[in-house]
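Checklist before submission:
- one chain only
- standard amino acids only
- sequence pasted in full

Submission:
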Amino acid sequence: MAKSFSNWGQLEKYLNEVISFTLQDEVANEVVEVMTEDDGVIDKEVYDKYTPYNLAGTNYHYHRTYKLKDKSNFEKLMLDKNTLSIRSTRNEDGRDITSVIEYGKGYTWGKASGYTRDLDKEIGARPFHEKTKEELLRSGRHIESLKKGLIKRGLEVL
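Returned file contents:
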């Protein structure tokens, strides 16, 4: 059954609610998928940037857990009625692992330990949140998920 509204304010309120629900559901899930899927942003911008072996490749400095890709480690917040914020909240022992990776500050391993293949370089920042934004702008996947969510909620979207 079609919705009816007696004034523009009611229509605007309804549309804002539908858009907000869609952002929190379909769009948020699609953004997290862009980050966590195989060969997605986290793989390309974080895990593919170096290998945690010593230079001979025989000993690990640590074993990767791949928990950065754990979908339960993402915070999805509406900053206002139409602004969605998504952030990895990966932490370990009270340490914000996401910030260490994103900004390149606070690593506990360094070039002197053979952490990177090139001893003259530190790993540095691997800004996967920013790269996710760039990928979304390139691919438009967030827009398609918004359209699908609005259609699922009964709106006709062209």
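Reviewer check: The first helix runs from residue 8 to 36.
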